[in-house]
Structures are given as structure tokens and as C-alpha cells.
Amino acid sequence: MQIQHNISLKKYNTFGIDAKANHFVSINTIKELKEVLQLSEYPKRFILGGGSNMLLTKDVEALVMHIHLKGIEIVSQDDSSALVKAQAGENWHNFVLWCLQNDFGGLENLSLIPGNVGTAPIQNIGAYGVELKDAFVSCEALEIATLETKTFTNEACNFEYRNSVFKQALKGKYIITSVLFKLTKNNHILRTNYGAIASQLEVMKVEEPTIQEVSKAVIAIRESKLPNPKEIGNSGSFFKNPVISLQDFEKLKQNFPEIPNYPVSSSSIKIPAGWLIEKAGFKGKRFGNYGVHEKQALVLVNYDNAKGSEILKLSKVIQETIMRIFNIYIEAEVNII
Ligand code: EPU
After folding, report:
1. What is the H or E stretch that residue 200 is in?
2. Could you say which DSSP state residue 181 is in?
3. pLDDT one-digit tens code per residue, 213-242
């Protein structure tokens, strides 16, 4: 274990922002994790996973702890399902591919989501009708204050749309070290009626899809809409889709009859923020080194060496404009550092 100083975080965040960490250490074992947490000379710490859901607007004046815990194991299995444990530092998509190679179903709709296994529960990652919580059994996490390990069941995580207890009451208090999933071995439950999956499978001429084919369809859709962070810096959806009351929705519909909407309950409706941003004229807009993605308005992009503060400023202009036009607040999904 080696502590480095004055390190660029550019390759550790998918936005590709060139902010610096005062101190940086890669953590490969739980033992190292505990040792580092006991170092009194670095009281300020910053936990870094895949760096796929944050915007660095300044240098990080702390010890950045890069969680690099690796390993995937089948904990138990019967005829119909398997319990699989993955360490926090495993890349999410590589883990999904490992599941598919073993013909374990449940995560295929979550293919190609950037980030790591250990940070996936924090915001309950989701795509194409599936959320992490649907296959999540429990996770192990180390309490920073006591160095004790605690197991959080699915229920204890309070999962909601892009939200969990780790973003709320327990924010900054625990480091997730591994996640346990329950996956199907046969009788896979295919979720193909969401978004463009069915039409993509048609394009692929697949009539009775396997989980591997569903994954391929999801990958094709994502690649067609979302920029690859290795080519263009981004953090996926920058904003959450807002949920508004039925009353407000009825009012909006008078001015915007074509507004897409997804009922959440009998009194609330989710509106795609991407539509609001596109309607406000931002889609594809480029401001020097940064801008709004041309194919998905929910994604802000760093074309080349933009500053986090510039992207933050753009996000605020977008929020204010959406408020002015639609009277809706769109909350950032990405963590602003
Ligand atoms: N839309 C537009 N213009 C745009 C983008 C979207 O009008 O530029 C409208 C369209 O009506 C479209 C609808 O929004 O039908 C939904 O768009 P899309 O299917 O792309 O999904 P989304 O609601 O914009 C959410 C997630 C994505 C996830 C997709 C697919 C959030 C914040 N985002 O986006 O997650 O991949 O659904 O399930 O919930 C991420 O979190 O980083 C992410 C990419």
C-alpha cells in the first residue's frame, strides 16, 4: 500500500475532469482499508469507486481512497438460482458479463452501466425497467467510525429510484465492501417490454431472446444514445427524472400536450428530464469544451479538458431554464464535489 501525493484524478472519473487529490491510495484488501482508516495524519478522506457518478468542481483536499477490492464468487446455488458475491472494486459491466457467461440472469438489462459493484447500491442503479434492488440480497459495509463490518439487507438499504440509505441517513458513514446478488439459473425473467428493447431485438431478428441477447440489445441501445466515457467524458444522466403531482401535470399538459409521462402512483407522474431539456433548446448545444449530448439531452459532456465548475454552471443554467419554462425543479443525479 502506497500513499501518493498531488495526483491527477482525470483517469479516475468518467467525466475526465483534471482535478487533483492531495493524497491518494489504492485499497486492495479489507486489511488495507482498515489500516488506512486508522492513519491519524489523514483525517479527511474521500471514498472513490468507479468515479462514474461525480463531477469534480475543485481539487480534493483529502486522502482519496480508491476502492480496488476484487473478486467474484458463487456463494451457494440450487437448481433454480445462485447467490453470487462480488467485491466492491469489480467493474459493474465486467461483473454483468461474468454473470452472462455463467448463464445467471437478472442483471442483463443493467449492461454497460459505468461504475463499480460497490457504488451501484448507493444510487440503486437502474435502466430499462430493472433496478439493482431487484437482484440485490445484501451488502457488507465497513463503518468508518468503528471499523466494524455490518450486513445491510435489501430492506435495510431503503432503495428508491436512484436513492438508498447510503445517500441519505448513512451518507459518508460506511464503505461498501461487497454485494450479494440472487440470480436465476433457468426460467430467466426477461424484461423486454421497456423502452426500445423489443424493437432492437426485432432489428437483431431475435424472436425468443436469451439473457445474453437481451444484454446485446441493451448494449446496442446504450451505444446508440449514450456517449462512451472513454471517448467523451460524461457521467450518464446528469439529472434525475422529476416526479410531479397529477395536478401540476394536468396544467402542463394544457401548454405541452405532447409531454411524455410515466405514472408513478395515482397522484404522481414522472417526466423525462431529457424531454424537458430538449424542449428548452439545450440538446446538442456545445459551449467550447463542454455541452449537452446531441443524442440524449440528460447527459452533459466534457469534450476536452473542461473544468468541473464550467459544467456545474451549465447544469445550473439548465435547471433555472427548466424552472422558468415548466415550473419544475430537476435535481442533479450526479454528486457534485
Ligand atoms: N427524451 C427526449 N429527449 C432526449 C432524451 C429523452 O425527449 O434527449 C424523452 C423521450 O420521450 C424518451 C424519454 O425521454 O422516450 C425517455 O428517454 P430514455 O429512454 O433515454 O430514458 P431516460 O428517462 O432519459 C433513464 C435513466 C437512464 C437509463 C434510461 C433507460 C434516469 C435519470 N436515467 O433515462 O440512466 O439508461 O432511463 O432505462 O433515470 C443513468 O442513470 O446514468 C442513465 C443513463
Report:
1. helix 197-203
2. E
3. 999 999 999 999 999 999 999 999 999 999
Rounded distance between C-alpha atoms, residue 73 and residue 67, angstroms: 18
- Write the single-letter amino acid at 98: W
pLDDT for position 195: 74
List the grid coordinates of 84.
453470487
Q: What does the pLDDT read at residue 52?
A: 94
| CATH no. for 233-336 | 3.90.78.10
Query: pLDDT confidence of 1, banded at 50, 70, 90?
Result: confident
72-225 and 233-336 share one fold: no
Distance between Cα 128 and ligand 1 center (Å): 9
Q: Is 333 in the pocket of ligand 1 (CB under 6 A)?
A: yes
Q: Check pLDDT > 90 for residue 194.
A: no
Number of helices and strands (H, E) in the chain? 7, 20
Just give the CATH number of 72-225. Answer: 3.30.465.10
Locate the domains of the chain by residue range: 4-67, 72-225, 233-336
Q: 84 and 181 in contact (C-beta within 8 Å)?
A: yes
Phi, psi of 202, rounded to the nearest 5 degrees: -65, -45
CATH classification of 4-67, choosing from 3.40.50.720, 3.30.43.10, 3.40.50.1820, 3.30.360.10?
Answer: 3.30.43.10
Cell numbers for 281: 433548446
Determine whether the shortest distance from the Cβ of 256 to ligand 1 is under 6 A: no
